């Protein structure tokens, strides 16, 4: 089943890229949307530079995964003809990772001014999985109200808060813990972190 992954303009694009990589490693189809601020963050934090036509090939090269070409579809954030923004197009759900506070505010209030927001709205109206990975600190009262509104509408909130009981040795270990928690919500099997015994 197809998973929709959206990367927005908050710090932590590495979480989104790692989620895409892990889903593809497990043979899942991924539809990817990246906001314009998300592209800026990926360029700054991971040195990923691409325009819409280059996203799939750049990710295939950076991840060293030729299978990306067959399992990953990319949609521009202004493409309102993309299948993922229709309720009749079936998916396993959507993850916005990282989720900026602007995107959170739009999702929590039912706005649909771009493909990410419209697809999130579809997930909620169709009672499909919508997982938000909000990356901001500290949260303002507005942020907290929007988080609550999104959760009450049916979204699952998974903040990128790494644990330490599995004794992470690298930043990658901490990233994998967060991505593993997202995969748990998607009910996708993984071994990204050692579970509590």
Secondary structure: elements and pairs:
Blueprint: E1 3-7, H1 13-25, E2 30-34, H2 36-46, H3 55-63, H4 68-71, E3 72-76, E4 93-99, H5 101-108, H6 115-125, E5 130-134, H7 141-153, E6 156-157, H8 171-186
Give a structural overview:
- The chain has helices spanning 13-25, 36-46, 55-63, 68-71, 101-108, 115-125, 141-153, 171-186, and strands at residues 3-7, 30-34, 72-76, 93-99, 130-134, 156-157.
- By secondary structure, it is an alpha/beta fold.
- It has one domain: Flavin prenyltransferase-like (Rossmann fold, 3-Layer(aba) Sandwich).
- Helix 1 packs across helix 8 (171-186) and helix 5 packs across helix 7 (141-153).
- 41% of the residues are buried.
- The model has no long low-confidence stretch (mean pLDDT 95).
Strand order of the largest sheet: 3-2-1-4-5-6
Report the total helices. Answer: 8
Count all strands and give the number.
6
The fold-level CATH name is: Rossmann fold
Taking Cα atoms only, what radius of gyration do you get, to the nearest Å? 16 Å
Give the CATH superfamily.
Flavin prenyltransferase-like
- Give the proportion of residues in helices: 40-55%
Q: What is the strand content? A: 5-15%
Task: Give a quick precis of the structure.
With 197 residues, the protein is α/β, with parallel strands linked by helices. The chain has eight helices and six strands. The chain has one domain: Rossmann fold, CATH 3.40.50.1950.
Keywords:
globular; 43% helix; alpha/beta; 197 residues; 6 strands; Rossmann fold
